[in-house]
Amino acid sequence: MNRKDIWRYKSLEQLENKSWEPTTEKDAEQFAELNKRCIALSKVPVIKLTASDLRVLIGQSFNPAYLVPLAIEKLKDDLFVEADLYPGDLLKNVLDVPAHFWEEHQDLHHDLKTMIKDRASEVETELDLPGYWQS
Q1: Distance of CA 35 to the CA centre of its chain
Q2: What is the three-state SS of 30-60?
């Protein structure tokens, strides 16, 4: 294993040194199922997250610096992977990551843009592209 890849074997909680647990019993009661799922997923080593898990966490704005590279790896295998909802749902959530992330991570931006370019007509007909990706 390459030392630079050690982060993949840590959970989001470990990577960010942060816990998303509700602090009171009242908070716990108010947490929706989606929030409970996100909290549970934050404890899983990121390398073990499925396409569905990544879709949920990215869609809930969890740290894209850790999650987007893993999602792109899955998208390289199948750009329109269905992560529970519909074909391309993981791709859609990745594309919805704010533009400032892509501006700061040009390597990931280039990788994803290349994948989209290769299947541009499908992407444009299957997904409602955010403005940042329409050019």
Answers
A1: 15
A2: HCCHHHHHHHHHCCCEHHHCCHHHHHHHHHC
Beta-bridge partners for 11: 45
What is the C-alpha separation between 79 and 72, in angstroms, rounded? 9
Kindly report the pTM of this predicted structure: 0.81
Can you state the angle between helices 64-77 and 106-118, rounded to 10 degrees?
30
Task: Assign residue 100 a region (left: φ > 0; alpha: ψ between -120 and 50; beta: otherwise).
Answer: alpha
Structure confidence by residue, pLDDT tens digits, 47-102: 999 999 999 999 999 999 999 999 999 999 999 899 888 888 999 999 999 999 99
